[in-house]
Specification:
The complex is a heterodimer of chains A (about 400) and B (about 110). Chain A is an alpha/beta fold and about 400 residues long. Helices cover about 25% and strands about 30% of the residues of chain A. Chain A is built from 10 helices and 26 strands. In chain A, a hairpin with a 2-residue loop joins strand 25 and strand 26. In chain A, helix 1 packs parallel to helix 7. The two termini of chain A are about 45 Å apart. Chain B has a single domain, classed as Roll (Ubiquitin-like (UB roll)), CATH 3.10.20.30. In chain B, strands 2-1-5-3-4 form a 5-stranded mixed β-sheet. The N and C termini of chain B lie far apart (about 30 Å). The chains are: A alpha/beta (about 400), B alpha+beta (about 110). Chains A and B meet through helix 2, helix 7, strand 22 and helix 8 of A and helix 1 and helix 2 of B.
C-alpha cells in the first residue's frame, strides 16, 4: 500500500496499529491523530497509582515522542475528527482540514456513560476515562480525604471498585451504590462477588446493593449527596460514576459504516469498507454465529491493532484468542480468562480463604472461563486450555492436586 | 537514579537515567527504547516488557515475586534464567550501570 494511512485515536489500539504497520514494512505516510492534549499514555494506572498520586506524569508515557518520530509516525495531538468522507477517502478535522487516506484505522475508544440524573452536571460528579478525568478526580478525592467527606461510587464494576480501593488508601470514606444484588454480577461467579464484597467491607467500604440513585443533591453548584429513589441520602464530596462505557462510533455511523453497539468488524478488524479498519474499545466483533462481541480491554486493543495493520497490508490476521482481563484492587490481582456469560456452574480450585485461588466457570458442562486471584499460573493455564479447546471435568478443576497442564499434553 | 543500558535486539544500545522508584519499563518506554512494550501499563499482566538482566548483577535486584515468575511463562521470546519483567524492577542506586538485553520479540 502506498498510503497515506490515517489512524484516528492515539491510545493503545492506535499506537499499536501504527507500530504494527511499520513492523510490517509499510513505508508510506502515517498519521496518528489523538484528541487529547497528551501523547500516548497508559490508561490502566489511572484508577490506581495515578489516582493515588504515586506516579509522575512521565511514568504514564506509553511511547516516547522521539521513538514515534524515529519510526516516522506523525503524531498529532489535540486533533478532533468530525467526519470521514468515504467517497473522497478523506478524514475531516474540526478545523475543516481534510486529510486524504488510502487506509484508515478507527481507534476512537469509548466514552463513559453519563449519569442521567438531575444535578449530575456539576464538577464533582466524575467518570474516569482520560488523564484529565483522573486529574480532576484526584483533586476532589484529596479534598474529600482532607475534609472528611465521603466518596460515593455509583456502579460496583471494575472501575468503580478500583477507585473505591484507591479512595480508601487515600483515607476517604467510601460508599458504593450497586444496582444489582451483587458486585460485578455480569462477570464474576456469585461466590467471588461475595468475596469481593467482603474484601471491600474489610477495608471499610460501605456497600449498598439494589441501589436506585434518583438524583444528585447539590449546593453552591457542587454535589453534596446522592439521593436514592427510596429517599435514602448518601452524603458525598465526590461522586464517581462507573456505569459502563459507550463506543465512540458516531463518526463511523455518520459515514455509513455498519455499526451496532460499536463499529462492526470481523475477526481481522475489517469494517464494511475495504479501506477502513477499526480496533479497540470502539469495535464490536461479528462472530461466526452472527452474534456480536464487545470487549473493552488492553488485549483486544493490541490484538485488533495488529489485525487492522495486517488487513491494510492485504493480509488476514484474525484475532480469536481467548480474551483476558485483569483488575487490581488493594493487594489482590484478579486475572480473568475467557468469557463467563451464561455460566451455570462454578467450581472453586483451592480455597476462597487462601491467598490465591481460581474460580472456574462452566456452561452446559464445558469450561468457558476462569477468574484467578493472585494466581497468574492458573490464569495462564486456563488461557492455554481455552485456546486449545480443552475442558477439564469440573471434578478435575476442583481438585487442586490434579495436574490440569497434563490435559494439554494428552 | 541509575544509569541503565538497554541493548536492543538489533544490537543498538541506549543508556538512560531511570529515576529512583521508577520501573525499568517506565524508564525505557519514556526515553525511546523500542524493545519494551509494557502493554498493561506495568500491572504485571501482559509479559511484554520481558528483558534479560546481566546475570552477574541479578543479585542486585529484588527477587521476582510469584506473579512475575508465573507471568514469565508467557513471554513471547525464550525464557532464560536471567529473564525478568522490566515493569517489576524498580530503579535505585544499587542498579547503576546495569545492562539489560531485550529479546527480539515481545508479542
Amino acid at each position: 500500500m502506498n498510503g497515506p494511512v490515517v489512524i484516528v485515536g492515539a491510545g493503545q489500539a492506535g499506537v499499536g496499529a501504527a507500530e504494527a504497520l511499520r513492523a510490517a514494512g509499510y513505508g508510506g505516510e502515517l498519521l496518528l491523530l489523538g484528541d487529547e492534549p497528551h501523547g500516548p499514555y497508559h490508561r490502566p494506572p489511572l484508577s490506581k497509582a495515578w489516582l493515588a498520586g504515586e506516579m509522575e506524569s512521565a511514568q504514564l508515557t506509553m511511547r516516547a515522542p522521539e521513538l514515534l518520530a524515529r519510526k516516522n509516525i506523525d503524531l498529532r495531538t489535540g486533533v478532533t475528527v468530525t467526519a470521514v468522507d468515504r467517497a473522497a477517502r478523506q478524514v475531516v478535522l474540526a478545523d475543516g482540514t481534510r486529510l486524504p487516506y488510502a487506509g484508515l484505522v478507527l481507534a476512537t475508544g469509548a466514552t463513559p456513560r453519563a449519569l442521567a440524573l438531575s444535578g449530575a452536571d456539576v464538577p464533582n460528579v466524575l467518570a474516569l476515562r482520560t488523564r484529565a478525568d483522573a486529574d480532576a478526580m484526584r483533586e476532589w478525592l484529596d479534598r474529600c480525604a482532607a475534609a472528611g467527606q465521603p466518596v460515593v461510587v455509583v456502579g460496583g464494576g471494575f472501575i468503580g471498585l478500583e477507585v473505591a480501593a484507591t479512595a480508601r488508601k487515600k483515607g476517604a470514606a467510601v460508599t458504593v451504590l450497586e444496582a444489582a444484588p451483587r458486585l460485578l454480577g455480569r462477570v464474576l461467579a456469585p461466590m467471588l462477588s461475595d468475596w469481593y464484597a467482603d474484601l471491600h467491607r474489610s477495608h471499610g467500604v460501605r456497600l449498598v446493593f439494589d441501589a436506585r440513585p434518583a438524583s444528585i443533591e447539590t449546593a453552591n453548584g457542587r454535589a453534596v449527596a446522592v439521593r436514592g429513589a427510596d429517599g435514602t441520602r448518601h452524603p458525598a464530596g465526590l461522586v464517581v460514576v462507573g456505569i459502563g462505557v459507550q463506543p465512540n462510533d458516531a463518526v463511523a455511523r455518520a459515514a455509513g459504516l455498519e455499526c451496532e453497539r460499536g463499529i462492526v468488524v470481523d475477526a481481522c478488524a475489517r469494517t464494511s469498507d475495504p479501506h477502513i479498519t477499526a480496533a479497540g474499545d470502539c469495535t464490536a466483533r461479528r462472530l461466526a454465529d452472527g452474534g456480536l462481541l464487545r470487549l473493552e480491554s488492553v488485549q483486544n486493543a493490541t490484538e485488533q491493532a495488529k489485525s487492522a495493520a495486517a488487513a491494510l497490508m492485504g493480509e488476514e490476521r484474525p484475532f480469536t484468542a481467548t480474551p483476558w482481563f485483569w483488575s487490581d484492587q488493594y493487594d489482590r490481582k484478579l486475572q480473568m480468562a475467557g468469557l463467563s456469560g451464561g455460566a451455570d456452574q462454578w467450581v472453586v480450585r483451592g480455597s476462597l480463604d487462601a491467598a490465591s485461588f481460581s474460580v472456574f466457570h462452566y456452561r452446559a458442562g464445558r469450561l468457558v472461563s476462569a477468574d484467578s486471584v493472585n494466581n497468574a499460573r492458573e490464569h495462564l493455564l486456563v488461557r492455554r486450555l481455552l485456546d486449545a479447546g480443552v475442558s477439564p471435568a469440573p471434578a478435575q478443576a476442583a481438585d487442586s492436586a490434579f495436574d490440569l497442564a497434563a490435559l494439554l499434553r494428552a | 537514579m541509575a544509569h541503565i543500558t538497554f541493548v536492543e535486539a538489533d544490537g543498538r544500545s541506549v543508556t538512560v537515567d531511570v529515576a529512583d522508584g521508577w520501573s525499568l519499563m517506565q524508564g525505557a518506554t519514556n526515553q525511546g527504547v523500542d524493545g519494551i512494550l509494557g502493554a498493561c501499563g506495568g500491572a504485571c499482566c501482559c509479559a511484554t516488557c520481558h528483558c534479560y538482566v546481566d546475570p552477574a548483577r541479578l543479585g542486585d535486584l529484588a527477587p521476582p515475586d510469584d506473579i512475575e515468575l508465573d507471568m514469565l511463562q508467557n513471554t513471547a521470546a525464550e525464557r532464560r534464567p536471567n529473564s525478568r519483567l522490566a515493569c517489576q524492577i524498580t530503579a535505585s542506586p544499587a542498579l547503576d550501570g546495569l545492562v539489560v538485553t531485550l529479546p527480539d520479540t515481545q508479542e
